[in-house]
Request: fold
Amino acid sequence: MSASETPRKPRGRQFFANPGPTNIPDSVLLATAHQTVDFNDPNFLEVYDSCVAGLKQVLRTEHEVFLYTGSGHAAWEATLVNLLSPGETVLILESGYFSDSWAQMAQDLGLEVRMVAADWRRGVDLGAVRAALADDTAQAIRAVCVVHNETATGMTIPLPEVRAALDAAGHPALLLSDTISSLGSLDYRMDEWGIDACVGGSQKGLMLPTGMSFTGVSAKAMQAHQSSRLPKHYFNWTKMLGRRHRSFVGTVPTSFFYGLQESLRLMLREEGLEQVIARHARLARAVRAAVQHWSGNDGPQLFCLNPARYSDSVTAVLMPEGHDADALRAMALQRFNLSLGGGLGPLGGKVFRIGHLGDLNEPMILGTLATVELAMRVAGVPHAPGGVDAALATLA
Reply:
């Protein structure tokens, strides 16, 4: 093939192993292809109400849930502007690219940001969190922001331990969490863990197209909302509460709710939430086993070095020195029709990511791992062959 020729697209269905957006089940795709309906139609309102109730089941909350047309970033902005006032202080636990992104957003909104710095490969030290809270004798910190599952690094942060640190310090700060890449994949218990506000999105564990997000809000957070003075209009919770839908200042994206209704049916009724979480844990162990095997012969290795914090929804893989992760990803996509996630921020070209969340099973995981190993062989990336066998051993 000459340099001017366009590469031919590989035949067959693409294996999509990005950590978000994720694969959408065929039944959910079909459900979203619904005719246009009036969002105040009584039949739609039944669908809407059942979806909100199901979403609360997945969040494990009995509190208010506000929904928006927008990605997870929209939900984070909505949460910050509805809870805080100009110049107030938030404490953000560093976990990777997305914790840094929320910090930048908070600064752009006129908030003061304090960071608990962390090694991206090991995760935040809870002792440092306790120290930061103890040092805040004036209790200037109004909210502690935590990414439950850092998609960029394949690492989780134990939210119950963060809540325990707040309680032990007697600190009144709100506990805010990002559950975008953990909800519907990892265990998440908003009320039990004392989460005051959590943000989620449609395109990960909920197995929907990108474009809808939400915030779960505790009673304590709703009280804080009453005194918040950051500018808001479309995201204003008070305006939303005056509407029948208790969300959406404007048109309701009806098609999403027909898809969400089917997604919730699959998760809560057909499989069961506990089984969904167990499936994600089982498949994640298989992926990690393959990567740990590949690390022989100076091959790729798990980016996360803290086994207690391995993510069950995404695994970040650090390439050997001198080998480009993006070149490997391009090889996998162009030659074998496998789409992998890339490294974010400073990890660009150094890391590729295998998403294992949402609609997936053993054949999909094993096919992904086999193709990654094939791409490494073709690209000349050092590794210990047999990663798929290591994955099989965990699944058998």
In short: The longest helix spans residues 273-294.
